[in-house]
Amino acid sequence: MPAGATVARVETDSEEVEEGQRLAVEARDRVRFEEDALALSDQVYRVARHLAGSREEAEDLVQETYARAFRSWRSFQPGTNLRAWLLRILTNLNIDRGRRQQRAPQMQALEANDYFLYDRLAENGDGVPDEERVVERLSQDDIVSALSAVPHDFRDVIVLVDIGDFSYQDAAQILDIPIGTVMSRLHRGRRILKRELAESAVQEGA
Amino acid sequence: MRDPCAHCEEMMQPYLDRILTDEEMVEAEAHLNACDYCRRRYRFEESLRVYVRQVVSEQMRPELKERLAALRIPLE
């Protein structure tokens, strides 16, 4: 056997070994990615539940998000925020599906101040109430229906920041809007939410 | 001179978001320590946020969790 043939075969073997090692590392990274992503599914679902109209839609949206995430896991940069990355996929899918009905911007006048909900709720009781008790004058249904009455653009920000606990920066990245817009929508969205809550409190009190 | 309670009201959201500057923070806390009216409304706002979060945090069904796990790409 000529000497050259042996050398060539040895090289092929070492290439195969390298390829095998590369695949093993990749498989390990992928499994780790999938586990990390699945560990965040409760938080992803919580956001989906408030972006989508129904539980079924939310479940579909979460499944599509994970299917896409698992397929394109290589485009995730390790060390960056996986939760924000997943939510970015989710909000893009939500927009693609046309689930986001663009409503006319809120034209109704908002109460000029931030204390009005407390004042509205507190005035129905006798004497000076305890702050924690005042909150309990709102039912769980009041909260759910008030939140769903907040227009999408504002609700998305409330859901991410106040419910999902995302930073302004993350919310800006997920929704692909400037951070200043996150802040102004949050400010306005909270006012709208409180106005809705005040209205439901008045109806019940009447 | 501005009404100190109206000014405190403007600082409520940024205060709860913890984005006030150190100087504004000192100012807000000084007012809150002295003013029962504003303190009550701040506490209310804080419990409202907690309450909203609790109410809307619906858990996902275990079936969905299983379906998500099944979406993982099998190893060759």
Overall description:
The complex is a heterodimer of chains A (about 210) and B (about 80). With about 210 residues, chain A is mainly α. Chain A folds into two domains: about 5-95, Orthogonal Bundle (Rna Polymerase Sigma Factor, Chain: A), CATH 1.10.1740.10; about 115-205, Winged helix-like DNA-binding domain superfamily/Winged helix DNA-binding domain (Arc Repressor Mutant, subunit A). Chain A is about 70% helix and about 0% strand. The radius of gyration of chain A is 25 Å and the shape is elongated. The relative contact order of chain A is 0.10. Residues about 100-110 of chain A have low confidence and may be disordered. Chain B is mainly alpha-helical. Helix content of chain B is about 70%, strand content about 0%. Chain B contains five helices and no strands. Chain B has one domain. The longest helix of chain B has 21 residues, at about 35-55. The chains are: A mainly alpha (about 210), B mainly alpha (about 80). At the A-B interface, helix 1, helix 2, helix 3, helix 6 and helix 7 of A face helix 1, helix 4 and helix 5 of B.
Q: Low-confidence spans of chain A: pLDDT under 50, at least 5 residues?
A: 100-108
Under CATH at level 1, the class of the largest domain in chain A stands as Mainly Alpha
Distance between the termini of chain A: 101 Å
The third-level CATH topology of the largest domain in chain A is Rna Polymerase Sigma Factor, Chain: A
**Radius of gyration of chain B over all CA atoms, rounded:** 21 Å
Helical amount among residues of chain B, as a percent range?
Answer: over 70%
| Class inferred from helices and paired strands of chain B | mainly alpha
User: What is the strand tally of chain A?
Assistant: 0
Give the N-to-C terminal Cα separation of chain B. 73 Å
* The named CATH superfamily of the largest domain in chain A: RNA polymerase sigma factor, region 2, helix turn helix motif
Pair with the biggest interface: A-B, 40 and 32 residues
Report the β-strand fraction of chain B as a percent range. Answer: under 5%
* Helix-strand pattern of chain A: HHHHHHHHHH
* Class by SSE composition of chain A: mainly alpha
User: Which whole number gives the mean pLDDT of chain A?
Assistant: 82
Q: What characteristic shape of chain B results from the CA principal axes?
A: elongated
Q: How would you characterize the largest beta sheet of chain A?
A: none
| Oligomerization status of the protein chains | heterodimer
The amount of helix of chain A comes to: over 70%
Approximate strand percentage of chain A: under 5%
